[in-house]
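// run 5 | inverse folding | seed 20
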């Protein structure tokens, strides 16, 4: 019998290849449509920023899409984090957040973790049940300054990461330090974080 983890991993693999309806998924992974719908609902609750559904011709049918690379299943699920490991995740979340023009500089209780990687770490802390512990640590005992750092467009890190892994080029609007802009089509190099900004 296939475990729910294996079944959901198969669903993510299929959606990474092509958008599908619950009925199409059920046929591909050999389960009932109802089971596929339950798995999709659970996956969407777990990965709301990656899994989305859109009407497919009529109001009763929906096609499911997976944005970005599929989530990685854990071969050895974590039971504990040391205090240093938890602090490192919280510090990275603060460093990777988008700066808030209304409240620049240091991280605060109002800080939004809306950059791609910052939101991913924030979601990890919440799904792990560590949101309260994280709130007790940041920003009272640990903070990260993002003063005067440009924001990354939504999805940029995931798009560049996918292009690097698959050897593809990307198109985007490039803005240089003098404010000049131009459309470019390039093969990206690996991402490097310099002074809190990805290059």
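// decoded
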């Amino acid at each position: 019998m296939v475990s729910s983890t294996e079944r959901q991993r198969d669903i993510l693999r299929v959606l990474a290849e092509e958008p599908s309806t619950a009925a199409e998924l059920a046929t591909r992974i050999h389960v009932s449509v109802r089971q596929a719908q339950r798995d999709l609902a659970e996956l969407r609750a777990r990965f709301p920023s990656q899994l989305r559904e859109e009407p497919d011709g009529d109001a009763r049918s929906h096609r499911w899409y997976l944005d970005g690379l599929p989530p990685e299943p854990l071969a050895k699920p974590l039971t504990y984090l040391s205090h240093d490991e938890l602090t490192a995740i919280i510090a990275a979340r603060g460093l990777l957040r988008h700066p808030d023009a209304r409240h620049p500089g240091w991280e605060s209780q109002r800080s939004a973790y809306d950059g791609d990687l910052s939101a991913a770490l924030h979601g990890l802390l919440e799904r792990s049940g560590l949101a309260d512990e994280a709130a007790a640590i940041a920003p009272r005992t640990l903070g990260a300054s993002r003063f005067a750092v440009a924001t990354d467009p939504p999805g940029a890190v995931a798009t560049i990461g996918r292009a690097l892994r698959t050897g593809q080029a990307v198109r985007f609007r490039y803005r240089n330090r003098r404010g000049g802009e131009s459309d470019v089509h390039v093969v990206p190099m690996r991402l490097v974080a310099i002074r809190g900004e990805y290059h």
